[in-house]
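REQUEST FORM: STRUCTURE PREDICTION
Request ID: SP-0412
Submitted by: Lab K.M.
Chain count: 1
Length (residues): 232
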Amino acid sequence: MKKYMGKTLVTILIMGCLLFAGRKGLAGLETANEERYLQKIFPYLLPGSTTFTLEMSVEAAEESQADNGAEVAGGPQTDNGTELAAASSAGEGGETEPVGEEIIPEEGEEAAEEEEIIRFVYRGETGYVICTVTQGYVDEIELLVGVDDSGKVKGLCVYGQHETFGLGAASQTNVPFLQQYLGTSGEAQTGTTVDALTGATVSSKAVTKGVNAAVAYVTGADISSGATSWGG
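STATUS: Completed
RESULT:
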């Protein structure tokens, strides 16, 4: 029964994120519209919470620093010292996406080894909804992850991606794949606790890094910031 409920939750989140991504991709959304759609998705990501307030935003932090004449170097810092950086735009040059199975780079050259990026964080009554951006095979993969105050993943969905159709792009719609992360607490590991998508190891690892980064924000946050005192 628990497994079925988890599958239903992930399916609902997939549909919600696909609908939002479609609207965003067609015409672009103003900040107010994006906020409205996010608020509709958040309760599914973090069951038990009904009110969500913005706690941290990369865009807001950069705008604040720019207004104050401060140079943004290496991205702003959160209260717990985590480095932040704004998500870059889609790849330039109109390069054609690779066809066939993704080629995994040699050790030390894998694109997915770049640092996780936290785009924004919303606080709910029972935890946090965190948007992370990690480097996939073709481009960045943007996730929305609900993490409760105990550091457990309660819901997630792929908020945006431009991975190879039929391979890494399945990270946004493959229910069994996404369902594996529910209930994890930062220990998710592609190839051991999480089965990678067929032919899309790099994309799968990017999702795993994003989920674990969201958990780390909660478990490693400074207590004085109002975050959970669990772990760290």
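NOTES: The helical segments are 2-27, 31-45, 58-67, 175-179, 201-219.
Reviewed by: T.R.
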